[in-house]
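Input record (one chain):
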Amino acid sequence: MNNKPLLITLLAAASFAIGCDKEKTAAQQIEAVQSETKQAAQDMKDYTFAQKAEFVKAMQDQLAVLNQDLDKLAAKIDSSSDAIKAEAKPKLQALREQAAKLNQQLIDAQNATESTWDSVKAGSKKAYDSLAHGFTEARQWVSDKIAP
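The corresponding structure, as predicted from the sequence alone:
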């Protein structure tokens, strides 16, 4: 069993859980998250059709971490001014839609056949990359708009 995705997920969770580390700038934190995201995306390429269940499980774990972090980000926004809330609402909705798209991709991956595996896996990778990138941008936006 390939434990890389689990390790990547745990590292990503730890980095998000730390939040705004006073010793690191927001840019450094975002760079670290982007590096972890790239590593997770690279790991996705290594799954064969025979490892489909492991791939889906690893992706579901990563999606769960991103959803938890999105909830934390939403809570931070909810405690801010009405202007910030109004500006952030469409951004959060877009991220929730991207998470739903990734969830659908994972359902498709569970149902993939050997002949459709590579395209379904690529679709899942694209959906994950989009969500992770969107979350990174949202986190930067919140960092810029709301004092830590």
